Amino acid sequence: MTYDDIDIGYDVPAAIGDNIADIQTPALIIDLDAFERNVARMKDHAEAMGVRLRPHAKTHKSADVALYQMASGGAVGVCCQKISEAEALVRGGVTDVLIANEVADPKKIDRLAWLAESAHVSVCVDDPTVVAALSEAAALHGVTLDVLVEIDCGARRCGVLPGAPAVELAKAVAAAPNLAFTGIQAYHGSAQHIYDPVERRAAIDKAIGMARETADLLRDAGLEPAIVTGAGTGTHDLEGASGVYNEIQPGSYIFMDADYARVRSTEGNGTIGGFEHALFVLTSIMSKPASGRAICDAGLKAHSIDSGLPTVFERPDLTFASASDEHGKIEDPQDTLTLNDRLRLVPGHCDPTCNLYDWYVCVRNGRVEALWPVTARGKLY
Amino acid sequence: MTYDDIDIGYDVPAAIGDNIADIQTPALIIDLDAFERNVARMKDHAEAMGVRLRPHAKTHKSADVALYQMASGGAVGVCCQKISEAEALVRGGVTDVLIANEVADPKKIDRLAWLAESAHVSVCVDDPTVVAALSEAAALHGVTLDVLVEIDCGARRCGVLPGAPAVELAKAVAAAPNLAFTGIQAYHGSAQHIYDPVERRAAIDKAIGMARETADLLRDAGLEPAIVTGAGTGTHDLEGASGVYNEIQPGSYIFMDADYARVRSTEGNGTIGGFEHALFVLTSIMSKPASGRAICDAGLKAHSIDSGLPTVFERPDLTFASASDEHGKIEDPQDTLTLNDRLRLVPGHCDPTCNLYDWYVCVRNGRVEALWPVTARGKLY
């Protein structure tokens, strides 16, 4: 074999059937047993609450994961954040996508309407000028777009104000050719990561109140919101049990990350929903230069530290102390680590971490069972 | 044209010849004029100091940039951090790569020796067990590897202690078949980002002292260190003028980022080396939901916030206040922004930001002049 023979695939981190020890590091690995348990748990939660489950695919960006969520995890479809992300998943076989976000750029609006020729596509709006552009593009492509009005229910990000402004926008949607007013997007992103359950419930109670008020006003105006959707992993049980929301959009529950492990459950006595860590960055010790210190090969390009540093799975004696571009510094006070030892890091934040990789290496019983491409990696548009 | 006609290339953010206004956002753009001035400045600095320039390619991961640095920027070759990164650049035409890092895994050591059949490849060591493995792999592939001993000169990351331990390791390298002892790697990473010039010089003065002591001891032992290499953008002028180092490894100077803009020059009266911002994340306003607040389409997956939030280029009236996965919140106290307005963000940290993108969109005089692939994006192994 010459060097050129490995042109294709030389950076695939493992082959199906490999032992875990043969995976090249750093690699993004899924513990399939834990992942499947997480998927089943959220399916059960949603069924028990009687709400639709539309998981957010921004977490995983994977057609394989999305199709598994729809086939086995009770999902009616998925959410995406960007049109290019939705395109990638539809190409991968996903048939129902809500862009749980605004699309304002004319080229992207055209792509959105175009995509609706191939799949059920819905989208959020918070601006009347976009309503006209969406309507025009939908007409051009001969489709009808389902449109939800996004309200700002506390995150101070996108969204019109709840109540009358939302009703005004819904009226514009309902009046626009080739658009169907479908309901309300009411997602409180920052509340997902409030660690304290009492404070978290207080934030979501306010969001529920705003969604309820808006839904009632819409009904008074003759605009039934068929869908009231929102919630994430951190608050899925609150919106889900509210009687106001009839759809939830959790994403991280399939993987869980180090930050979500700090979010106490609503009852205050465990992790949210009973979800467990199923996603890891597999890393190797590449230098053991001094007592108490080991250096691993997973730095800022291997996991995102925006929500804190990773933890070392099942190794409470070790601390991931700092990251540089391609190195992680591990405090190893008992000097247990030696060169080429491997550790599983639980990333601080799973969504931007997954976006760094081309492949999920899916493992079970110590072996590589599957390689799933990160279908929509880098799809930012 | 059907949807499937755009299967290839539908996520390329622009076409050559496009106006800047037609680039799909978020996109990573290079101001070619500023980039070329930065390359010329560092070439001049290195020539004036009489040291070799081996820019670090971990910043850009681009064969196009590396080849330009070698053809026009005075570079003798480049540095890489990972074997897969080096492989990608060698495939792109780069002929001389120093892995300015340790390679400990047996599979990676094999890949390293294999790569040395196609290019001049050198590597660092800080562990005697790796010396034996490198020697064996080099013999297997019929190559001689140039090996530098890395010393810990203050960063407390990788590297043997300076002085006698480094000499012992150098002796092992020199005695190993198919390895050539080439010199000392003495890079103080954390010093690059010390904003205060007096503190920064103090840290580097210590590093220079350790490199000098080690070089002298090596000479006493009959092991001439042909190369003493290190330094980054923040300290290139200090090691470069030391009389001890004869090679510098700056990376970020080509682009500059928001954090490097905070690093005062050694004279304390300007930015380091006179370098200017040449890399931007082009972003669009996708929501203008409330007075004082605008939301752009560049979040945590569009730039890395590990070294702080981005700044808004040439818009001191605007503040990038916070990022979520796909949104950036812009404080716009004078309400100047409207939907689909575009801004250039200076990323907080250029290296991990570049690693998020597939393409550099290179612009000059308001037009897209070139598209350069991020050749080694995601090459983490």
Automatic annotation (TrEMBL), chains A, B:
Ranges where the D-serine dehydratase-like domain occurs: 278-364
Alphabetized Pfam families for the sequence: Ala_racemase_N (PF01168), D-ser_dehydrat (PF14031)
Keywords: Lyase, Pyridoxal phosphate
Stated name of the protein: Metal-activated pyridoxal enzyme
InterPro entries membership: Ala_racemase_N, D-amino_acid_metab_enzyme, D-ser_dehydrat-like_dom, D-ser_dehydrat-like_sf, PLP-binding_barrel
One example of a Gene Ontology biological process annotation: D-serine catabolic process
Claim: Transmembrane is one of the keywords in the record: no
GO terms of molecular function: carbon-carbon lyase activity; D-serine ammonia-lyase activity
PANTHER family membership: D-SERINE DEHYDRATASE (PTHR28004:SF2), ZGC:162816-RELATED (PTHR28004)
Family: Belongs to the DSD1 family.
Essential cofactor(s): Mg(2+); pyridoxal 5'-phosphate
